[in-house]
């Protein structure tokens, strides 16, 4: 026989055992499963409340359990099977039951309260009774709040009239409480609100304001909202009123709101602009920073009103102006109406030295300077900027360029520095025109203009004028007669004169040549002919220059091929005239020899040799020679031609002892050789008379200058000297 395996017990009605589902008996069903049939007995027991009856049936078995009324708890039903086989199964069923309803919601804790008036939209709320887990209002679940201690439900779109709401609390076993009924009146009509004072939008000249109006709902609450601040008004007998104080300057949008008990609202806005300030007086920037007797300055004065906007200035005049000035400073005052509240205050004939400033007096000080439409008078204005009073003309500190050189450009930039700031500069000139005078950078003391020459030559300023910021004019050039500031030159040096431009013969290959110009120049190049040119040097002012030439080829002419010079303006000219400046004679032009005289001889024969054939050799005679000596006498007896180049000269009648000197004068050499010479040929010989002759001679010159006769004796020494006998061909 198989063993019984399982026994179960179930309640045929699975709904909650509570008030909502009825108080009657519940049917329990007992079933067993298995293959055996050896059940001896079935035992059913109950604990926890209620009664069992009606056990019947043959697998399954049915038992009726009746829960207790007006109670809550749980019943435990146990079924035990006694079987022939081993293993007696047991089944247990625990049934919770609750037949106790929660407390009904307290109407005193519900808002709106019973018999209240509400609007078309409102929210009903209250407290959750103990044991309740849910609140419904007319069957609609409310929202539980604050840890399920309060509830709330919103209504919208309600029609005007009566409204009854049932509020029920439900516990966890879904047992409902008794309904709490809240009867409401739905009011959807806002109150009728009016504002009688002020009667409309506008300006108000006080910081306090009394407002008044009407409202047809005596239960309404009246408030006035000014920005973020709300003020409560008083409502009595259909009339509301309020007194506002400490209103700030400016516009106030005052929102008057009436709220009835149902929350319906009506509102009216009054915009009031509080204006307790008089017109604003603005003193503008003067047209100049300095003023004097010869100038005037305008100061703009503007009246405006940020509030009511109307400005009356018909009483405004010169007596309404107040001055702050250095002692001794006086001024004439004039006022001109420009319209639209704008005036021009003019100060002229300002005398003295120092400063002055002005302002407009307050309306209370000087009658009604300006008044707005509310009767508010203007206040004192700010001071104008301080004006410098100057009655001294400007002076010239410097004019540049202070020195100048000629230029190929006709333009010169002229800069003038004055002793004070000036407003304008002018200049006149008979030799130049001027561009626009302009201030240099931001320095009003320094002005500059381009001066343009009208013709070549020196040019400058005849008269310079300047007007300072106060209108004082410089007119006397500070005592100067004028200024030469430039020289326009586009023409190069006109000519050059070369000194020493000849072909004079010379044994010296070097020659200093002087160049003379009509104006100061700079010599930049000298091209020499058959010579090298040294570095030219100036005498100081640039009009005279000296250059040393060194001949390259002997026995030939040398000189200058060209000269390049630039004047101070930079105009350069190359002169190519060509100048021969010398002739370098490398050899001896003329020589003289003399044999040793015999002791006691009374004559000496000189041999004179020229470098070349001379012109007209037959014309070379004793008169062309000079004879001299010391303590000796003699005469040139004859000149005898050997060739056209060589001659013998006989000196006879020698007397005394000493030196005999034969000279071929330079003019003679020049004549016979067609050259120019610097010095004559000098040939000397020492002659000694014979013993016992004792003669003394005398020197002579020209043709046969005589010497005293004597006896030749002792040593005869002959020496020949050639002093600069060189020629130059031109």
Question: What's the layout of helices and strands?
Answer:
Layout: E1 4-11, E2 17-18, E3 26-34, E4 39-47, E5 51-56, E6 61-66, E7 72-83, E8 90-98, E9 117-118, E10 122-127, E11 132-137, E12 140-141, E13 143-145, E14 150-155, E15 161-171, E16 180-186, E17 193-197, E18 202-204, E19 209-215, E20 221-226, E21 229-232, E22 234-236, E23 239-244, E24 250-259, E25 265-274, E26 280-283, E27 290-291, E28 296-304, E29 311-312, E30 321-325, E31 330-339, E32 342-351, E33 354-360, E34 371-372, E35 387-389, E36 396-400, E37 406-407, E38 411-418, E39 422-428, E40 432-434, E41 438-440, E42 443-453, E43 457-461, E44 463-468, E45 473-474, E46 483-488, E47 496-499, E48 505-506, E49 510-517, E50 521-529, E51 531-533, E52 537-538, E53 544-551, E54 556-567, E55 572-575, E56 579-584, E57 590-593, E58 604-610, E59 626-641, E60 646-664, H1 666-673, E61 681-687, E62 718-722
Parallel strand pairs: 2-8, 9-16, 18-25, 27-35, 37-46, 48-56
Antiparallel strand pairs: 1-3, 3-6, 4-7, 5-6, 7-8, 10-14, 11-12, 11-15, 13-14, 15-16, 17-19, 19-23, 20-21, 20-24, 22-23, 24-25, 26-28, 28-32, 29-34, 30-33, 31-32, 33-35, 36-38, 38-42, 39-44, 40-42, 41-42, 43-46, 44-45, 47-49, 49-53, 50-54, 51-53, 52-53, 54-55, 54-56, 57-58, 58-60, 59-60, 60-61, ...
Low-confidence spans: 675-679, 691-730
Q: Report the oligomer.
A: single chain
For the record, the CATH class of the largest domain is Mainly Beta
Structural class: mainly beta
